[in-house]
Every structure is written in C-alpha cells, then in structure tokens.
Amino acid sequence: MVMPNRNGGSTPNWDDLPPNVRGRFARATQDAPDAPAPQPLAPPALARDLSRLAVLFLCVALGNIAVLLLALWFIYG
C-alpha cells in the first residue's frame, strides 16, 4: 500500500521544515555579505593556450590522414 504525501502532493512550504533547519537557513541569509562580482570562466591567456592546443591537435590529425592517404596511394597505385 502506498502512503500519501505529507502535504497532499503540493509543493513543500517553508513551514514544513523543522525549526532548527529553518533557523539555520534564515541566519545564513541574514549574515551573508553581498556577493562579489562574477569572475570570467577562463582568463584570456588560458583560452589562448587551449585554442593553440586545439589547433595543434587538428594539425596532427590532418597530418595523420595525409600520411595514411599517401600510403594507400602507394599500395594501390
């Protein structure tokens, strides 16, 4: 047998929490300082280095394809 939800299936309210949990969250929001400005995900130097690495991988992949096509041309040519 399935037990019914405590609040009848509606969304839980703030009053459903135990008093000590409710107090802990209430204090955390009152004592919290203003949030600092968001930082960029990656500094420009890191993005530049990663893009150089991606271009290097692309060049190596294209070189591998060229060598394999050249080997096929020699084998079947």
Question: What do you see in this structure?
Answer:
The protein has two helices and no strands. It is an all-alpha fold. It has a domain at 43-77. The radius of gyration is 30 Å and the shape is elongated. The chain starts with 18 loop residues before the first helix and ends with a helix. The model has no long low-confidence stretch (mean pLDDT 80).
Number of strands: 0
SSE-based structural type: mainly alpha
Number of helices: 2
Rounded to the nearest angstrom, the distance between the terminal CA atoms is 75 Å
Mean pLDDT over the full residue set:
80
The run of helices and strands is: HH
The helix fraction, in percent, is: 55-70%
Sheet of most strands? none
Mind telling me the C-alpha Rg?
30 Å
Morphology:
elongated
Quaternary state of this entry equals single chain
Low-confidence blocks of residues: none
Give the amount of beta strand, in percent. under 5%
